[in-house]
Amino acid sequence: MDLPLPATTLMPELPPFEVVRPERQTVPLVFASPHSGAHYSAAFLAEARLDATALRRSEDSFVDELFAAAPAHGAPLLTATFPRVFCDANREPWELDPGMFDGPLPAWVNSASPRVGAGLGTIARVVASGEPVYRHKLAFAEAEARVRRYWQPYHAALAALIAETRATFGCCLLIDCHSMPAHPAHGANPADFVLGDAHGTACAPRATRLVEETLGGMGYSTRRNDPYAGGYITRHYGRPREGVHALQIEIARGLYMNEARVERAPGMQALTRDLSRLIGALARADWSALR
Fold first, then answer.
1. CA 284 – CA 265 distance, rounded (Å)
2. Residues in contact with 105: Cβ distance below 8 Å, sequence separation at least 6, in sequence order
3. How far apart (Å, rounded) are the C-alpha atoms in residues 41 and 46?
């Protein structure tokens, strides 16, 4: 039975995700962007104590545009339309901070994960800069409605794309697409891309290496698993023994956008072109060994 939606979550004019499919899928690849959603309802903005720009800095803004060439290379592209600060599709469905809510949470909620402790659970308590999101505490029904109306449909669509791809090709390589702010741990030597394969457990080394070599050949610097080894999506769906491989790609935002204003920068066009070349290299590769 469908749950009634609290007013603060009502976004009736937009579905929770979009899938852009090729005319015919010709490669065992799926591209997904769970954090580029940028639809903020007026009701949600009214509940937040931060302005729209501050909220948007938690997005992986424009990442869906950077990978828009995927369907032209024979692969589907899945994107969330809802924003990360509203509901994070790269978390377990029930990673919730009990301090955010006006009553006790069910015993089955995961309230002890490191992500919850950092304020960045399925429903974020803070934005990336550490500022609190909400003016007041939420009802658990609010979180439950968001998970059921946004998180679950996104993951149902992702699971279906992976299953279809594996059934057709015998394997699937999921490219989970993200962006990253400058990381202080890397000081004056930041990477342009961080490739996360859960330290080799979520993806065949061949796939990670091909992405690494292709980006390096275009002049970009890369790191593996430092500081991002892969989130929930990479670890949950990456099951190499079952023929499903997942690789998280984090892109330095400074390459293509103005982070303070959340605007596209002059580098956007060149990076989009280079990522189209990367997608093409992945599409031309022989992935039969991933089965």
1. 30
2. 96, 98, 111, 140
3. 9
Euclidean distance between CA atoms 152 and 137, whole angstroms:
23
Give pLDDT tens digits for 167-219. Answer: 999 999 999 999 999 866 666 788 999 999 999 999 999 999 999 999 999 99
Residue 94 phi, psi (nearest 5): -130, 45
Label each residue of the chain as H, E or C: CCCCCCHHHCCCCCCCEEEECCCCCCCCEEEEECCCCCCCCHHHHHHECCCHHHHHCCCCCCHHHHCCCHHHHCCCEEEECCCCCCCCCCCCCCECCHHHECCCCCCCCECCCHHHHCCCCCCCCECCCCCECECCCECHHHHHHHHHHHHHHHHHHHHHHHHHHHHHHCCEEEEEEEEECCCHHHCCCCCCEEEECCCCCCCCHHHHHHHHHHHHHCCCCEEECCCCCCCHHHHHHCEHHHCEEEEEEEEEHHHCEECCCCEECCHHHHHHHHHHHHHHHHHHCCCHHHC
Residue closest to 90 by CA, chosen among 185, 162, 166, 177: 177
In tens, the pLDDT along 69-117 reads: 999 999 999 999 999 999 999 999 999 999 999 999 999 999 999 999 9
